[in-house]
Write a structure and sequence with these properties.
Pfam families: PSP94. The chain is mainly β. It has one helix and eleven strands. The longest helix is centred in the first third of the chain and has 17 residues.
Length: about 120
Amino acid sequence: MKTFLACLLVLSVSVTVSNASCYFLPLNPVKRGDEIIGSYDMKGEPHEFNSHWKTEDCLECSCSKFGISCCTIYARPVNFDEEKCVSIFNNTACAYEVVEKADHSKTCEVHEWVG
């Protein structure tokens, strides 16, 4: 059983990574004097080169000399019993939970996830 759960965990992580939705923002220079030390994000926040962070809306971002790239760190459930179940996004955990509509304490089986 432990081996099965370990395999399931590896599979779920690889699905999340391989199906992540990403975007790229070209360099919007942050300067210290005449030196470019980073880039501004979409909210106008400065980030230094080679920095990495997680946003409040569940994106994992990094800053390079070319700009900022961000990818979702969650997968969406797309193949489950939608008549019996509902997907609920947990913003704290950055993950969807699929539970029965009538009893949110009972989880539902999901057959496919996409990023």
